[in-house]
Please model this.
Amino acid sequence: MSLRSETPPRPGNLHVDAPPNADAPTSAQLKGDIDSGRTGDKTPHMDIGAAPLGTCEEAGGTPPTSQEVRIARQNERAPSERSKAGYVHQRQPWVVPAFVGFIVFAAVALGGGLWLTH
Model:
């Protein structure tokens, strides 16, 4: 099986399900929200990190409380209509032709201007 260049290798290509709601959410559940695409800012695949979310706070002696994580989860979740309308890693078919057209137009305009001055 050959991978396309934009397909990440395992375990980055594994699908992640959204974590369930809990009375005392953890930072791992917040990371699960992000990895599952529930926040609407990335594709729904596992993100391998060097340190789990919340590690710096724990190392500093102030781990996030469940209330802080609950607020973060509520603020980070995107409404379904907003996440569906998002452009996260979705291709826009008009961008490349518009860019190429602009480059060609600029080259023709510059060439025509130089030709008319001589």
